[in-house]
Amino acid sequence: MQLKTIKTQFPIFKHQPRLVYLDNAATSQKPAMVINRIKDFYEKENAAVHRGIYPLSENATAEFEAVRDKVARFIGAETSKEIIFTSGTTESINLVASGWGRKNIGPEDEIVVTEMEHHANFVPWQELNSNLKFIPVDDNGQLQLDQLAKLLTKKTKLVALTYISNVLGTINPVREIINQIKRINPKCLVLVDGAQAVPHLPVNVQELGCDFLAFSAHKMLGPTGVGVLWGRAEILEAMEPVKFGGGMISRVERGRAIWASVPAKFEGGTPNIAGVIGLGAAIDFLNNVGLANICQQEAQLTAYALEKLQAIDGIVIYGSQELESCGCKCGRCQICKLECGRELKLCKNRLGIISFNIKGIHAHDVAQVLGDAGIAVRAGHHCAMPLHQQLGVPASVRMSMYLYNSREDVDLLAEGIGKVQKVLKNNQ
Ligand SMILES: Cc1ncc(COP(=O)(O)O)c(C=O)c1O
């Protein structure tokens, strides 16, 4: 699918023809295919899943469970039993923190996170009252992995890290990090926050070697209110449920209850059925375009945006600013899995996200003036306060791209920043 064709699949751009949408790290837009699938489900197929023994309910159950199989294939899971539907990345991580953490983490135990985590992959661990250690981030926005061996001890029970930073766009070398962790402490579990990675590049849990992966449907063209926790079957079997009620039990008596098997054990209550079905349509859309294609085009666009922004006077860009040629055979295609045979100019270890500040102007003012001009970017700490403390700023402006963005969007952003500087500097 060509870029222009892709954009026409998203009704929002028909209704908002001037919209330059660069807030994809917060949530993505939705293609007609996803919107229509959800509408169709409610109009023609709506029924509760798992319990009904009439055709409408049996069909809804089959559709719902087919999405579980689709998600499993999408991330290379061994079995769809390892796929738990949640409300999003935040709930997925909280489920591990409560269901696994409360049972396995004591005050003497250690958990390692990185300084670049979203609060969703930080606060749940902090709340466990364990000893929390941090892999530091250097001035170039990279994890200081030479610290890892020092940070890991026999007491380390879990490492929780993001695949791609939602502020710096840094792509962490997750597979290598996990190899190193397992070499040093084979019992240590690894949770990967895939919220910013699963929508943008091919992710295969078995190749990564992680133990948990969390991600959200709404950042990958799907609806809000749906997410996924993938976990290794044997770990999930041993984990405690955290939501109690209907659907998660196999038997209830007055004095006790016996849990259903995985994944039902973790899915108490009526799930977000239409949302899950919408996620299935989103995966179909992504598969049609191809994750490798999405990754490669976004990687080139990120490099273009970085160069464009670097040329702006008074801009401070956070994270890696190096551009490199992929030197095709192709170094980057280890990420995008595309043997394109072309030399591409790409950002070193960065995909899709660039955060910055304009000297002398508050990030919120930048975002507001850009917003008035139809350019949607995010300003604030992006739920990564510890990272902003490290960067020495309370807030930054973040532009984040996806498969419908183009060079024209980046050009309009750069122009818009020029206007912001004129308007706000003249007012000072
Ligand atoms: C890296 C990362 N982790 C976790 C989250 C939380 O995702 P959600 O709000 O969908 O639960 C986000 C959302 O921005 C994110 O960027």
Helix and strand arrangement:
Elements: H1 3-8, H2 12-15, E1 20-21, H3 32-45, H4 55-74, E2 83-86, H5 89-104, E3 110-114, H6 123-126, E4 131-135, H7 148-151, E5 156-162, H8 174-184, E6 189-193, H9 205-208, E7 212-216, E8 227-231, H10 233-238, E9 249-252, E10 257-259, H11 273-289, H12 291-310, E11 315-317, E12 323-325, H13 333-336, E13 345-347, E14 353-358, H14 363-372, E15 375-376, E16 378-380, H15 385-391, E17 396-400, H16 407-427
Parallel strand pairs: 1-15, 3-4, 3-5, 5-6, 6-7
Antiparallel strand pairs: 2-8, 7-8, 9-10, 11-14, 12-13, 14-17, 16-17
Bound molecules: pyridoxal-5'-phosphate.
Describe this structure in words.
By secondary structure, this protein is an alpha/beta fold. It has two domains: 3-22 and 290-421, Aspartate Aminotransferase, domain 1 (Alpha-Beta Complex), CATH 3.90.1150.10; 33-286, Type I PLP-dependent aspartate aminotransferase-like (Major domain) (Aspartate Aminotransferase, domain 2, 3-Layer(aba) Sandwich), CATH 3.40.640.10. The chain contains 16 helices and 17 strands. The protein has helices at residues 3-8, 12-15, 32-45, 55-74, 89-104, 123-126, 148-151, 174-184, 205-208, 233-238, 273-289, 291-310, 333-336, 363-372, 385-391, 407-427, and strands spanning 20-21, 83-86, 110-114, 131-135, 156-162, 189-193, 212-216, 227-231, 249-252, 257-259, 315-317, 323-325, 345-347, 353-358, 375-376, 378-380, 396-400. The strands form five sheets. Strands 2-8-7-6-5-3-4 form a seven-stranded mixed beta sheet, with helices on both faces. Strand 5, helix 8 and strand 6 form a beta-alpha-beta unit. The protein binds pyridoxal-5'-phosphate. Pyridoxal-5'-phosphate is lined by residues 25, 88-90, 118, 120-121, 162, 166, 193, 195-196, 216.
